[in-house]
Amino acid sequence: MRILLVEDEEKVARFVERGLKAELYLVDVVADGKTALHHLEHFSYEVVILDLNLPDISGHEVLRYIRKSNRSLPVLILTARDSIADKVENFELGADDYLTKPFSFTELVLRVKALLRRGQSPNRVDVLQVADLVLDRSAHQVRRKEHLIELTAKEFALLEYLMMNAGRVLSRTMIVENVWDQSFEGLTNIVDVYVRQLRKKIDEGHEVKLLRTVRGVGYSISEEGA
């Protein structure tokens, strides 16, 4: 497994590199955005660990490049900013996970392994359908009654998880652990933000509302509707 680490703080980069190599991963370390883009163009990676505060091209620009060229490459963001607004911004840009500095290496490697597992799920069905809502994983498209619905990367991942579990009520904690690969309570309120956005896009203007809230429990999507 080959990992690209984009980090301009030398001590942090050495710390992470040593730990990942001890876990038997191959690691390429770069300290700026331009070099990161060069590596992404010329080499293949299973995961990118990306610092946002880079000296030339920002981490956000690197993330935008990754999502334009490779929708499925997992990206773990490293940053000192931990507000809900910052998290929403990064997930909207296509980040798969988010780790706030300072962090423990144990937590980082668990996140990396979770991202790798997500990318290796066997026997995947490419098209999911609930009533007239269709999600095509290969084309990365969502349609309802043949109307194309534009979703951000994280909205798509959330809808995908809901549709994989159609008819089942999913708690906020379950959603965080499976869509954001995190297990702490501090992120559960971001689920409500994304569900509201998703509901506007897939249900607004349709007589049958597919996405429902089970008060005090979580969320569900089903053919019976809300």
Explain what you see.
It is a single chain. By secondary structure, this protein is α/β, with parallel strands linked by helices. It folds into two domains: 2-119, Response regulator (Rossmann fold), CATH 3.40.50; 127-221, Winged helix-like DNA-binding domain superfamily/Winged helix DNA-binding domain (Arc Repressor Mutant, subunit A), CATH 1.10.10. Helices cover 42% and strands 22% of the residues. The chain contains eight helices and twelve strands. The chain has helices at 10-22, 33-42, 59-69, 84-93, 105-119, 153-164, 172-179, 188-202; strands spanning 2-6, 26-30, 47-51, 75-79, 97-100, 127-130, 133-136, 141-144, 147-149, 170-171, 211-214, 218-221. The strands form three sheets. Strands 2-1-3-4-5 form a five-stranded parallel beta sheet, with helices on both faces. Strands 6-7-8-9 form a four-stranded antiparallel beta sheet, covered by helices on one side. Helix 7 crosses helix 8 (188-202).
